[in-house]
């Protein structure tokens, strides 16, 4: 059923994406903080919806389908905005590309394995990777306002954390690919 709390949170996360885009283009500190706030709120729903689904025994096929899609749309949209507006630039664009490519790879792998009724559970390391991604993107979306709050080092901290999440992304992507290939061969 669509009107279960976890599903509502997931759908809300999808609805927040166009709001995030709109706020991103608002000028000044107001726009920075609104953008960061919407992304943090959307990221929080990512952590809460699955927890509530298990706690309230409200796991649904719709939630299983929409949750990873909503996560990927949120992260990819934020990364594209940051790259297009030169917040993420030069070699750091590689970190964004790694993250986006892994999201596509894992989505395709999950879809392929679903044909065989096989599921790939999310690893603990992948959860840490997701948190690090969300945290780094939040800092970068805070823009100059966040930079000032972190004593002028906000952008550097955000980029370092983005690279950290990209490294974890490579490892977890490889791990999922290896497990997926093992399942496909069996």
Radius of gyration (Å): 17 Å
Helix content estimate: over 70%
Q: How far is the first residue's CA from the last residue's CA?
A: 34 Å
Helix-strand sequence: HHHHHHH
Choose one word for the global shape. Answer: globular
Biggest beta-sheet profile: none
Mean model confidence by pLDDT = 90
Question: Could you name the ranges where pLDDT drops below 50 across 5 or more consecutive residues?
Answer: none
CATH class: Mainly Alpha
How would you portray this structure in words?
The protein has helices at residues 5-24, 28-55, 61-84, 92-114, 124-141, 143-149, 154-185. It has 186 residues and is mainly alpha-helical. It has seven helices and no strands. The protein has one domain: CDP-alcohol phosphotransferase transmembrane (TM) domain (Four Helix Bundle (Hemerythrin (Met), subunit A), Up-down Bundle).
List the helices and strands and how they pair.
Blueprint: H1 5-24, H2 28-55, H3 61-84, H4 92-114, H5 124-141, H6 143-149, H7 154-185
Helix pairs in contact: 1-2, 1-3, 2-3, 2-5, 2-6, 3-4, 3-5, 4-7, 5-7
Which structural traits does this protein have?
Four Helix Bundle (Hemerythrin (Met), subunit A), 82% helix, mainly alpha, 186 residues
A few lines on this structure:
This protein has helices spanning 5-24, 28-55, 61-84, 92-114, 124-141, 143-149, 154-185. With 186 residues, it is mainly alpha-helical.
């Amino acid at each position: 059923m669509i009107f279960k709390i976890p599903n509502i949170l997931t759908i809300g996360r999808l609805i927040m994406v166009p709001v995030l885009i709109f706020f991103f283009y608002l000028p000044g500190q107001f726009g920075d903080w609104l953008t960061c706030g919407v992304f943090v709120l959307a990221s929080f729903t990512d952590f809460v919806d699955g927890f509530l689904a298990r706690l309230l025994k409200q796991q649904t096929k719709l939630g299983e389908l929409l949750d990873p899609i909503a996560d990927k749309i949120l992260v990819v949209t934020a990364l594209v905005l940051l790259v297009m507006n030169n917040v993420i630039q030069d070699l750091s664009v590689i970190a964004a590309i790694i993250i986006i490519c892994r999201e596509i790879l894992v989505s395709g792998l999950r879809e392929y394995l679903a044909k065989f009724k096989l599921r790939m559970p999310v690893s603990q390391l992948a959860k840490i990777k997701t948190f690090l991604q969300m945290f780094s993107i939040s800092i970068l979306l805070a823009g100059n306002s966040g930079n000032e709050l972190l004593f002028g080092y906000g952008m550097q901290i955000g980029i370092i954390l983005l690279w950290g999440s990209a490294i974890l992304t490579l490892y977890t992507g490889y791990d999922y690919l290896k497990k997926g290939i093992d399942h496909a061969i069996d």
